[in-house]
Amino acid sequence: MFTVGIDLGTTASVISYLKDGTPEAIQIDGGVTVPSVVNYSENRPIVGSEAIYRADSANTIFSVKRRMGSNEKIFGRSPAEISSDILSYIKLSAEMKLGRKIDAAVITVPAHFSDAQRTATKQAASIAGIKVLRLINEPTAAAIAFGLDKRKNGIFAVYDLGGGTFDFSVLRLSDGIFQVLATGGDNNLGGDDADEKILEDNFRRNGIADPTLNEKMLGKRVAKFLKENLGDQELVKKDFAVRDKIYKFELTRENAKKYLKEIFEKTFLISSQVLEDAEISSEDLDGIVLVGGMTKLDFIKSFVAENFKTKIFDDISPEKAVSFGAAIQANSIVEKDGMLLIDVVPLTLGIETFGGGVDKVIHRNTPIPITERREYTTYQDNQTGMKFRVLQGERPLANECRTLADFELKGIPALPAGLARVIVEFSIDVNGLLDVKAYEKSTGVSQEVIVESSAGLSDEDMMEILEKAFSEKESDQIKANNIAIKIETERSIRFWKSIIKEIPEDFQKIASEKILELEEILAREKFQEVIPLKNELENIFGRFLDEIINNHLSGKKLQDIRGA
Predict the structure, then answer these.
(1) Of 2.60.34.10, 1.20.120.1200, 1.25.40.10, 2.40.50.100, which CATH number belongs to 349-471?
(2) Residue 177 to residues 109, 136, 147, 184, 402, Cα–Cα distance (Å)
(3) What is the pLDDT of residues 83-122, one digit of tens each?
(4) 0.70 exceeded by pTM
(5) Which of 33, 20, 26 is nearest to 102 (CA)?
(6) Which residues are catalytic?
(7) Are the C-beta atoms of 83 and 11 separated by less than 8 Å?
């Protein structure tokens, strides 16, 4: 079983796995952190760097983790549904990068997450087709990553300051056993707050009154750029376009220190309360682990060192540490807790997808009773019906699986392609009866079919199906990977073509030739040649992507900047 660890972050997410016993982050979008941003301007969700590039207030959601567990709807979707789009993108991209299917994951959550927030995280993973081995708290994952569970006994704190949330936990470690003494945090405290202060200051300084939501959103990206690029300079500047006029946004060292100090003082109040709850003082700590992107900043490191006066553990990238710990824990669960399940789904159940693939809804060996849901949409304008084919089997292509039922949902509102929201729900009761229901969210129009998932199958039949799946496992994996490679590569090509004129001219010709070559390889279905060439293009565009995004937000192109 191939497992991963996922840090589903407020501003960025990371996925890692164990390679030869050592945790390694999987590079996606040219880096190890994937922005937790989703854009719905097309009939499919756009996630990560491309979502930021396309960002607008009408179609883009940032920091959805802050709303997990709520009943709020954003663009007609729940926070769990939006988070599932992030997880789906991460999972598919990682599978393409590694050339293998991800079977299960450990996903991390803030230690102070409520039951509702944890349940929503599990729902997001389920919608994304990810089997969750366990949810573990982010501080515990960080401690595992730093190896404190193996090499240390004592009392340690984990200071986790990210873009949108803060966690502080005190743990007692004794011979590899974690005991959480106390924990606390704030779902609305992080680097975003400093970005907001920087943005407000620049709007005020430049006399920009009543900025629109879109201007605020794009301006915040520029504010983040200023914060992360100040370094040891006294002043950093960045152009930003507002209403056809270019303004100079800036950040001084003095203001940065002031804004970051405000954030730190809030974290220190929370930390002090947690230490009090644990009935210890900072002098009793044997060390403090720094986690979260904000702890990379020298200001924050200095604040922590000055106020806690204990050994600081920061030898692992703070952005990777949590996912590293989750990957280690996932591997440990599989190695130590393997078991044979009874009262389970005997064969995988799913729905035929566009292109003849299979969307696996309930996997073989899932304990019953169980209910799982998937969301689909229309692919043609004014489409008022959708046909569904319920499948059973382990193969990646629909025509290689057993058909259990065909049914059609009629009465879908006539809308542009991609706007209708159709939920398909699979429920299996304790008797093994499968109830498949499809309904359109806005109207409630529904259609239902009940089948017995194992009807007409003897034990010998099921063994034959499984043996066929196992014997064809390698070729099936190749087929599934090829489908994923084709879909994701076509998406990447569309994005690269949209920004190619924004990279330096000497790289444009190289990139154009390689894109043409990649399209020809795809057309010939030479999938084994796609990944190396796709990686070359990712490296070319990845060198300039952050600059392109930032200059896009400021109304300039990379060519203009470099030619100046």
Answers:
(1) 2.60.34.10
(2) 20, 14, 12, 20, 47
(3) 999 999 999 999 999 988 998 999 998 877 766 788 889 8
(4) no
(5) 26
(6) 7, 65, 138, 160
(7) no
